[in-house]
């Protein structure tokens, strides 16, 4: 067995050997195969470097394609074999260290560039040959009588030996002479070709200007023209050519003949069509890909006034689970089956289906009445996914979420439409999936704003755009300021001051909540220490405490305890002056591993408060195993006390919770106190501390110091 190449240069030479063996039989070179292989080495190196370059440069592929012409590889078969070698072996031998999918995409683009460079160079060479032939023809027709024989012989040699098809006709369109190359191109006899008039060689794909140019030429109004034209062969097949027609004049300058030079481009056209198909269609499912879909969508959105469009953006629910559990081969088979079903849903004129990502598909419909048609299309798609897909003996249930965008053409671009559909699809997925939602401009704006805030969060922390406001915690027994809760705010450059509900969920989703939470804790602890120093000597008020919220993400961070200890020690604040608030929902079903950091902090003297108590439907008996010392009663239980008389049910509930908490040696703090009557009722029920707008709104730290100082001095 042959050993694999060792180094990059060995692999490059191996690729070159394979390439030369494939192409050499189809070339017209006089070199030996080893000499031909040496000529391909620099071309292979250029392809290898272009494959692995940081940025893709199509010019490299075009240069390699043009170099094939210089190496006398002018037959379409030589290009086809070269592209096959590049497709099969370039990534294998020259790109094994990179991401394979990206390298294969780049290899496909290199093939397209090679074909373009090959076609351009071949055309330039052909045009040069055509010019020489035309010149020879003109000289042959215009020589003086005494040199007629030699000129005719020279013309005949060029005429018969040319690789391109040549035909001469009179100005009435009667074909007078054709060479062997033209006969081979048409696959007919000379009598069959010469027996036809030029004007009979029409084809449905002829460009509108083809015959206008011809009429101008035979009238002597132009000397030549160049077009791409198709012809029918006698057997009914189509011959595509690059056609150059020139006017031949006599010695007096009068139009006399027309000379047609034809280059057979059929194979090249088929190759370009194949490359175009591969570049615009998904290799797995055969559906149009993202590139072709954007072309169609752009065309649809540019349609005439009065037309509309409808777009369904589908993402499969739980597809990653199938890939992870059954493997990517099973996932691919599922995608192929889904693609087949989707194609059967979009068969009407103006409808198309494309695959634009891993498990993401789009369906487009156009016409004057897409408001109704797009809903029907979405229903057909959802119904098509109902039947389970059977793979390897398993029946897989397929679910999908669809975002629908519909509207008049001419108002939005493709990128904006697809973004709206994507946002709407994720809204359907967030609502439980297996459903479709209609796009909503306000929902889109909110989603775009959320995305903008998410991307701006890291820089906002670096630019010190966050600040903290403090809301007093008041002792209900004597009305003294017991401490304060730290509430973070974001001073956004465009949106102004944002409250935590606008950005804390985004910070939790991105993981930025950990550094942001550490910053809040650090600032709050330092502020509490400053309050205590400024409040020193006023023993009646006691030490001011600080309450800081912890998110569920922070609870699971391994540095929670060490960070807290470090911050307290550097600020010189006693642990008893810090209270960490954790929402009840974050501790529902918490295991010992999650509770361990809170227990360690509690043992150090840090208070743990159970925030929003009563909203998590937790088992009250579960309180015994939680390392908490304070219950923060949710404001929903005390709203009924803002009116007189107070709701008796709320009174009983709060009285029961307070009694239970005190029996477990837990203090009770109440949120959302807004009236004096409410505060007095809560005091009578035995609540320990409270906070709310009745006492003070969240504000700067100096205001809390002033309040505490007033309480201390009476």
Automatic annotation (TrEMBL):
Q: Which Pfam families match?
A: EAL (PF00563), GGDEF (PF00990), PAS_4 (PF08448)
For this UniProt entry, which segments traverse the membrane? none
Domain PAC spans what residues? 225-277
Ranges of residues in domain PAS = 151-221
Task: Tell me the InterPro entries matching this sequence.
Answer: Biofilm_reg_signaling, EAL_dom, EAL_sf, GGDEF_dom, Nucleotide_cyclase, PAC, PAS, PAS-assoc_C
Q: Where is the GGDEF domain?
A: 307-441
Q: Which residues form a coiled coil?
A: none
EAL domain residues: 450-712
Recorded superkingdom: Bacteria
Q: What is this protein called?
A: EAL domain-containing protein
Species of the source: Streptomyces sporangiiformans
């Amino acid at each position: 067995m042959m050993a694999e190449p060792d180094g990059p240069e060995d692999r490059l030479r191996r690729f070159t050997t394979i390439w030369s063996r494939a192409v050499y039989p189809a070339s017209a070179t006089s070199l030996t195969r080893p000499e031909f292989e040496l000529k391909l080495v620099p071309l292979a190196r250029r392809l290898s470097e272009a494959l692995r370059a940081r940025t893709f440069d199509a010019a490299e592929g075009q240069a390699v394609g043009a170099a094939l012409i210089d190496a006398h590889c002018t037959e379409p078969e030589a290009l086809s074999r070269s592209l096959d070698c590049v497709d099969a072996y370039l990534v294998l031998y020259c790109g094994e260290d990179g991401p394979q999918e990206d390298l294969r995409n780049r290899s496909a683009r290199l093939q397209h560039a090679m074909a373009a460079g090959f076609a351009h160079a071949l055309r330039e060479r052909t045009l040069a040959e055509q010019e020489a032939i035309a010149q020879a023809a003109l000289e042959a027709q215009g020589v003086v009588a005494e040199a007629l024989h030699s000129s005719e012989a020279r013309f005949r040699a060029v005429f018969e030996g040319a690789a391109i098809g040549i035909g001469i006709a009179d100005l009435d369109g009667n074909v007078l002479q054709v060479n062997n190359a033209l006969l081979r191109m048409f696959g007919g006899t000379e009598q069959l070709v010469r027996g036809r008039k030029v004007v009979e060689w029409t084809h449905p794909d002829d460009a509108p200007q083809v015959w206008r140019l011809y009429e101008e030429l035979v009238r002597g109004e132009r000397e030549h023209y160049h077009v791409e034209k198709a012809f029918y062969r006698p057997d009914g097949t189509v011959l595509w050519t690059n056609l150059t027609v020139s006017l031949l004049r006599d010695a007096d300058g009068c139009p006399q003949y027309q000379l047609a030079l034809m280059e057979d481009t059929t194979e090249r056209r088929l190759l370009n069509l194949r490359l175009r198909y591969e570049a615009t269609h998904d290799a797995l499912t055969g559906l149009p890909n993202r590139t072709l879909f954007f072309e169609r969508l752009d065309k649809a959105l540019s349609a005439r006034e009065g037309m509309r469009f409808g777009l369904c953006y589908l993402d499969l629910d739980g597809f990653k689970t199938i890939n992870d559990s059954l493997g990517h081969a099973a996932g691919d088979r599922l995608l192929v089956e889904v693609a087949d079903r989707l194609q059967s849903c979009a068969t009407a004129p103006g409808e198309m289906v494309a695959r634009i990502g891993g498990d993401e598909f789009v369906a487009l419909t156009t016409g004057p009445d897409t408001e109704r048609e797009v809903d029907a299309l979405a229903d057909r798609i959802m119904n098509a996914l109902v039947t389970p897909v059977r793979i390897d003996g398993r029946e897989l249930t397929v679910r999908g979420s669809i975002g629908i965008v519909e509207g008049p053409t001419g108002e939005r671009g493709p990128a904006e439409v697809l973004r709206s559909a994507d946002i709407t699809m994720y809204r359907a997925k967030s609502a439980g999936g297996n459903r479709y939602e209609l796009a909503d401009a306000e929902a889109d704006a909110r989603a775009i704003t959320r995305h903008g805030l998410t991307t701006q969060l890291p820089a906002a922390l670096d630019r010190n755009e966050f600040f903290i406001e403090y809301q007093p915690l008041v002792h209900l027994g004597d009305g003294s300021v017991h401490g304060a809760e730290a509430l973070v705010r974001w001073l956004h450059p465009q949106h102004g001051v944002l409250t935590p509900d606008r950005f804390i969920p985004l910070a939790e989703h991105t993981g930025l909540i950990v550094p942001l939470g550490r910053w809040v804790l650090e600032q709050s602890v330092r502020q509490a220490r400053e309050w205590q120093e400024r409040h020193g000597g006023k023993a009646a008020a006691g030490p001011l405490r600080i309450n800081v919220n912890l998110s569920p993400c922070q609870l699971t961070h391994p540095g929670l305890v060490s960070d807290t200890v470090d911050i307290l020690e550097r600020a010189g604040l006693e642990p008893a002056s810090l209270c960490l608030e954790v929402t009840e929902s974050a501790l529902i079903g918490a295991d010992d591993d999650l509770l361990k950091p809170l227990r360690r902090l509690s043992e150090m003297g840090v208070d743990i408060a159970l925030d929003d108590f009563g909203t998590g439907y937790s088992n009250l008996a579960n309180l015994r195993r939680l390392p908490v010392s304070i219950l923060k009663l949710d404001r929903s239980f005390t709203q009924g006390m803002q009116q007189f008389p107070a709701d008796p049910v709320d009174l009983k509930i709060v009285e029961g919770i307070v009694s239970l908490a005190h029996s477990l040696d837990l203090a009770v703090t109440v949120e959302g106190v807004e009236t004096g009557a409410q505060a007095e009722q809560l005091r009578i029920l035995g609540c320990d501390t409270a906070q709310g707008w009745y006492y003070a709104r969240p504000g700067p730290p100096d205001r809390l110091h002033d309040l505490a100082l007033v309480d201390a001095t009476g």
